[in-house]
Amino acid sequence: MPPRTQTTTRLPESAAPASTVTGLLAACHPLPAAAVTVFSAALAVAAGRDLPGAALTVAAVAAGQLSVGWCNDRADLRRDLATGRRDKPLVTGAVPAAVVTRAAALALLLCVPLSLACGLLAGAVHLVAVAAAWAYNLRLKSTAASWFPYALAFGLLPAFVTLALPGAPWPPPWLTAAAVLLGAGAHFANVLPDIDDDLATGVVGLPQRLGVRVSAALAGLLVLGSTAALVVGPPGPVTAYGRVLLVATAAALLLAGRRPGGRLPFLATMAVAGLDVVLLVAGLWG
User: How much is the mean pLDDT over the chain?
Assistant: First the structure.
């Protein structure tokens, strides 16, 4: 009787250049990476940075976000294979794991000089934020402190922008608070669609411990609190746009909460962040 052969699933060792680029783009978590980068651009414009300074800020944030996204997909590869995540380029073989590893390392290396070029203190603050995101990917996402890296990284983003200004001023407390709340809310909203898969593969962060409904409610409250801080925090009366933004945020989050286990809460969070960007670019930051 011939010996039995065992079949195994192998990821391709190489891919065509065009498909590799496409796979890399998909693996970097393009939506949140783009959202954070655009948010940093809005902060830079609102803070009054000149064009070269704003471009440098955006480049540093983009490099950091690319490194974090690629690190995340590479760190999650084994769990994604176990749960059959066909939406992940590393699982489908659209891009080799070694390529993603090198891309994450290269983006991180580029992030260091780009950040420090904005000023030593500003650069150090941004690198702490990026380090927090890497710590989430590699360890903290499976702990009860899973929310903390998001809150810290988002909370330091305004400081990265303002500390690069003449005199290195720290951002106003209300802006830091808004960023912290948005980051924590984004964490809860982002995890919602994957809670079952996470639990099956041993990822037990705070949202997984609290469950879908509680996490969805927390995500909504945190994001609403972020918008409220942006609206009522600046000096002067609340503007008409601010009042409309608060109502629209509450309505969007309420609708998203009707389907807490899907992707809708996260998309609603991104939409609210976009409206907040409009608030900043419109010059309502005093």
Answer: 86
Rounded to whole angstroms, what are the CA distances from 177 to 180, 223, 233?
5, 11, 9
For 66-118, how does the pLDDT look when each residue is reduced to its tens digit (9 = 90+)?
999 999 999 999 999 998 888 899 999 889 999 999 999 999 999 999 999 99
What is the three-class DSSP state of 185? helix
Distance CA 152, CA 181 (A): 10
Residue 193 contacts by C-beta under 8 Å, 6 or more apart in sequence? 261, 262, 263, 266
pLDDT tens per residue across span 211-250: 988 888 888 889 889 888 888 888 878 877 778 888 877 8
Distance CA 97, CA 43 (A): 34
Distances in whole angstroms, Cα of residue 184 to Cα of each of 109, 135, 166, 244:
27, 15, 30, 23
Biggest distance spanned by C-alpha atoms of the chain: 86
Provide the 8-state DSSP code for 239: P
Residue 18 CB burial class (10 angstroms; 0-12, 13-18, ≥19): exposed
Determine the 3-state secondary structure of 255 from DSSP.
helix
Length of the chain: 286
User: What is the reported pTM?
Assistant: 0.86
Alpha carbons 210 and 229: distance in angstroms, whole number: 25
The reported pLDDT for the residue numbered 230 is: 86
CA neighbor of 68 nearest in space, from 154, 157, 23, 134: 134
Q: Are 105 and 64 in contact (CB under 8 A)?
A: no
Whether the CB-CB separation of 181 and 197 falls below 8 Å is answered with no
Are the beta carbons of 90 and 22 closer than 8 angstroms? no
DSSP track, 75-101: HTHHHHHHHT-TTSHHHHTSS-HHHHH
The 8-class DSSP code of residue 5 comes to P
